[in-house]
Amino acid sequence: MNLSILLQTASAGQSQWSGIIMMIVIVAIFYFFMIRPQQKRQKEIQKAREALKVGDKVITAGGIYGKIKEIGDVYMVIEIANGVNIQIDKASIFASSEDAKQK
């Protein structure tokens, strides 16, 4: 009788460890296939935004095409037509026009 109880306790402990290991594997899969690639894309987008300079043609997240006239700390002034300037947040710059044509 004691041997039977001992075997049941050992198998219960083993199933707990296998459940924990499966959770760790699932978290690792999510990290390497979803979170890490997204972080890489965000870093690339940030580098591209920092590389923009006055005179570059850009596209905003809202689909507005324009040319950069002024760059501030958190904003950009872009010209969307002759004499029509708008001030937008740097984070709303989607891509430069050259990058958009290549994709």
Description of the molecule:
With 103 residues, this protein is an alpha+beta fold. It has helices at residues 2-51, 97-102, and strands spanning 57-60, 65-71, 75-81, 84-89, 93-96. It has a 5-stranded antiparallel beta sheet with strand order 4-3-2-1-5. The longest helix is centred in the N-terminal third of the chain and has 50 residues, at 2-51. The radius of gyration is 27 Å and the shape is rod-shaped. The chain starts with a helix and ends with a helix. The relative contact order is 0.11. The model has no long low-confidence stretch (mean pLDDT 83).
State Rg.
Answer: 27 Å
What separation lies between the terminal Cα atoms?
71 Å
Global geometry: rod-shaped
The helix fraction, in percent, is 40-55%
Q: Give the percentage of residues in beta strands.
A: 25-35%
Low-confidence stretches: none
Counting helices, strands and paired strands, the structural category is alpha+beta
Q: Helices and strands, in N-to-C order?
A: HEEEEEH
Largest sheet: 5 strands, antiparallel
Total count of helical runs of at least 4 residues: 2
- Spatial order of the strands forming the largest sheet: 4-3-2-1-5
What is the arithmetic mean of pLDDT?
83
How many beta-strand elements? 5
Helix-strand layout with pairing:
Blueprint (H helix, E strand, L loop, with lengths): L1 H50 L5 E4 L4 E7 L3 E7 L2 E6 L3 E4 H6 L1
Antiparallel strand pairs: 1-2, 1-5, 2-3, 3-4
Notable traits:
5 strands; 2 helices; 103 residues; alpha+beta; 54% helix; 5-stranded antiparallel sheet; rod-shaped
